[in-house]
Design goal:
By secondary structure, this protein is of the alpha+beta class. The chain is 35% helix and 19% strand. It has five helices and three strands. It has a three-stranded antiparallel beta sheet, covered by helices on one side. A hairpin with a 7-residue loop joins β2 and β3. The longest helix has 15 residues.
């Protein structure tokens, strides 16, 4: 739900999360700005719709949204971020249809961390044992 941050903060959020936290999986969702015309038509009574120009309709879906991206903008942001941080990214959405214009109502990017050779070996042992407490008879303490 990155649309609740300022746009530059959302971009920095992606950079920080994928570079510092490096989660195996990150799911990001945000409205598809192109879908707003459909939502505005469904929420504006017919007699008021005729009297309102495009400039009078709300810019975003929610007064709390700081920005909303088109599919192209979201795809560009997520693809660049994934490439820069060694992630794959898959796109999906909710509401509407990805096969019909203007796409899903909300768009989703699923980032998956690509395992490096070092990570693949280390995944069986995510930590290094530096000390084990043993009982007086030499057995490991449970």
């Amino acid at each position: 739900v990155i649309e609740h941050m300022e746009e530059d903060q959302a971009c920095e959020f992606g950079e920080k999360v994928l570079s510092l936290f490096r989660p195996k999986l990150l799911i990001v969702s945000t409205p598809n700005f192109e879908y707003n015309t459909i939502l505005q038509r469904s929420t504006t009574p017919e007699n008021q719709e005729e009297n309102k120009s495009e400039s009078q309709l709300p810019k975003f879906r929610n007064h709390d949204h700081k920005f909303e991206w088109t599919r192209e903008q979201f795809n560009h942001w997520a693809t660049k971020l994934a490439e820069h941080h060694n992630y794959s990214v898959e796109f999906s959405g909710v509401g509407g249809s990805g096969e019909v214009e203007p796409g899903f109502a909300s768009q989703i990017a699923v980032f998956k961390r690509e395992a490096s050779a070092v990570e693949s070996v280390a995944e069986g042992q995510p930590y290094k044992v530096i000390w084990e407490w043993k009982k007086g008879n030499g057995e490991k303490k449970d």
